[in-house]
Hints:
The complex is a heterotrimer. By secondary structure, chain A is an all-alpha fold.
Amino acid sequence: MIFAVLQRLGQMLFVMIGISALVFLIFFATPGSDPAARLAGRNASPETVEAIRKDFGFDRPLPVQYVIMMNRLFVTQDLTSFVNRGMRVVPAVAQAAPVTLSLVAGAAVLWVIGGIFVGVVAALSRDTLLDRGLMVLALIGVSMPVYWLGEVMNLMTQSRFHDTVFFSWVPSLGYKPLLTDPWGWFKTLIIPWFTLAALYIGIYGRVLRANLVEAYQEDFIRTARAKGLSPTRVMVRHALRTSLIPFVTMFGLDFGVLVGGSALLTEVVFGLNGVGRLTYQALLNLDLPMVLGTVMYASFFVVVANALVDVVYVLIDPRVRES
Amino acid sequence: MTAAEKPILLDVNGLTVSFATDRGMVKAVRDVSFSVREGEILSIVGESGSGKSVTLLSLLGLHDRKTTRVDGMVAFRGRGILDLNPSELRRIRGREIGLISQDPMTALNPVYTIGWQIAEQIRAHEAISARAAKKRAVELLGEVGLSNPQEAVDRYPHQLSGGMRQRAVIAMALSCNPALLVADEPTTALDVTVQAQVLDLLLRLRKDFGSAIILITHDMGVVSEVADRVAVMYAGRIVERGETEAMFKSPLHPYSWGLMGSIPPLTGPRLARLKSIPGMPPTPDRIGEGCGFAPRCAFARPACLERPPLRMIGTQAALCILEEPERSALRRTVLSPEEFA
Amino acid sequence: MSIPSDIASPDAFIPDMPDETAGKRVGASPWRRAWLLMRRDKPTVLAAIVLVLIVVSSLSAPLYAGYVAASDPFRSNLSARITVDGKRVKVMQASTEGLGLGVTPIGPTYGAQYFLGADTQGRDVAARLLYGGRNSLLIATSATVICLVLAAVIGITAGFFGGITDQILSRILDILWAFPVYLLAISLSIVLLSHGIVIGPIEITGDSLLLPIVIIGIIYVPYVARPVRGRVMALKKSEFVLAAKGLGIPAWRILVNDILPNVSTMLIVFVPLMMALNIITESSLSFLSIGVQAPDASWGTIIQDGQTLLYTRPAVALAPGIAIALTVLSLNVLGDSIRDALDPRTKLV
């Protein structure tokens, strides 16, 4: 047991080191790339480039640079931005994280409820018009690019229908902290929540419906019905309970990736200064310390989410408990 | 009181089950009639696809209501089951009629303990505390012969052997003390030694609980060991039914002859070779009004394309055009001692 | 004691799939069966028609730009004038919003010229939409091919040879797997866009369409390679492969005869789903201005162009989004249908 946990931790560490090395390589070792030249700008003189190279330590061997940077990121935590000099990486990420977390957590609540609703109703009304309609809606949700849906939402709530009773409450784009302005927090986030959730409601609804339909072919569902249980109980305690196992896996991974910064398109469209947007800005400015910081943050969530999924898996599926 | 005098528990009359398919309605079970008396074991025998499982599912109302139509009359203790509304039906399922499935591996929900699943059924029908229900589950598991019921009650299905799981399924079916147990090939998925134990268990339960049992099987050996009466199904029809002893002594339908010919006798001279019936059973959509077995029957004649008549001899009844003494003569050619070498 | 198995037919109860051509039974070849199943499904047919229409109209972009719209969709047209309802009007009109400063591009005319209006450069949005569709489809298709080929090679190698090969490949996939796809795509795009890439004799410049193709082709490889590897490993343990091994059939023949056909079915099921995913990914990158580079267009870049005009000329951003949604929707419908018909077990991750 302890060995398994240690092995798991080792694996997590390996993946995180791998990711940081990969980012490092992408920025420093891609053929034809010269970080100093890029930081100096297009028309910089060779002297400037050379100065920057020295200043940032790009003249040192790659492994040394990597170790120095990782040391400053994790141990001394004084790694600063290349672009906004003096701006520390760790506090910047810490400041952006609550925005992302608020966005993703709210959307996750919506998409879990919505996904279960769509999946269960569609499975129960299988092959009827209601089922078809829900599946078409789910497919539309899956097919719209999230940033475009965000723009459409903005167009409606900020411009076209902003003066009507429906959307006059929608505040202008931006983020309000939960602790100082909870109501404002809620109002600014509700449209982004729905936008981000639309895609996932579609995915989860479709997957859950398929799993439920499959579950209803199982012998144990027939047993449950033969026991004289009510249809609700058969659905909730038997079909849904077993179908939730893959659902939980999906949720863990999606949640981890989004908290890690993959909600950046939603953040960009709604002007939310979250981790995704921070990462994107850092990438655009080739601000490597910031990129490393945000990517490590992102991969941390992904890796932790993976581990949590494994734990939850053991809790909800007795079959994997022994192995 | 002999078995024949006990009151009728389940009476099935003219049961017809049709499925909606791309080619329209296809009858999987046609005009099936039989009855089960209290405490009696009726065995329904037939090949895969002969309609025996479909018959059983429609008895419990477990068919898919959207794609399946069930006609005819099914009376349980004089009450028509087919016309019951869902909640009335649920009160019969599990409480009055218990189901034992074929494969104990898949019949139990993998994510709940055995005890939980048994208690769930008890609590669906009786107002009783969770703790009392669990205590009953332990008793039931002891009843069906699990050596350590206290421990087994907290086990998940995958932690038990096949035989133990089937006992747990039986315990669950018994949990509300039903008057009728419906067992769908309860021994097929088990090892031979375990098969015998489970059959013994069913016989004992009949004695101790007085439950009637409908035993669905394709195993003639099982039939001869436990059944009071037999119904042979072929291509959606019951082609012959009667008391077990009489049927094994003098089967009336040529299909039954084939079945008997496929059993190695336990006593007497050995068959040189077990017989098989040539050909394949027809798919339900290919069956007309005529005798379904005619295409494979060595004795078929043009009249077999018509709906076969029901002929009764003593306690036996068969859907076949053959009449005595021709039937006995033909049967001798199939099941005669000359065949034994 | 049981009924001999030669008379018991387990399939006797499953009615065969009927074929609308009289008397003939479907089932000889799985491909033919799949084709007939799909042909009967109305949503599938509709999706296929929509896709064909989108592809054909995208391919006819030069014809539309040259003969209908009569404008070059890649050059600024700030001073152009066109005739609408018999009147000559400027493409860039004086703004009526706010202080009345600056210019606003003409809105949809629903005529031959500027059917969907103009963008901030005065370019015909409808013509750009068609050209953009060409690029979006081209990138998505090529990236799909790259992704599936790489994934098949990696997945089959890892699954078939096992051992240390599998260990190394799987660990690399693990890392890529844990790397959020969009971050990976954006990192690669930004680095490669600024300087292009030089690999031996091949030089890809920063504004080449090849860059997004390669990037999008790479990032989803783990998502396909993993299931391929799993399937190959399962096949390796299957009865028929073990039997073939027992007969002394060489490994390469088992690979060619038993494993490749099975994997290729799986890959075909992935094609439409990957296409859909790639279209969305390409458009997202282009929307972040790190995909297709100006003056080239793709659906994503047009939405990006339309962002500043969102409240005044929403058609610029709305139209390409609808095009994306329609294409992806059709691909998903088609993908579901192909999967159901060919290989219901296949799941993308």
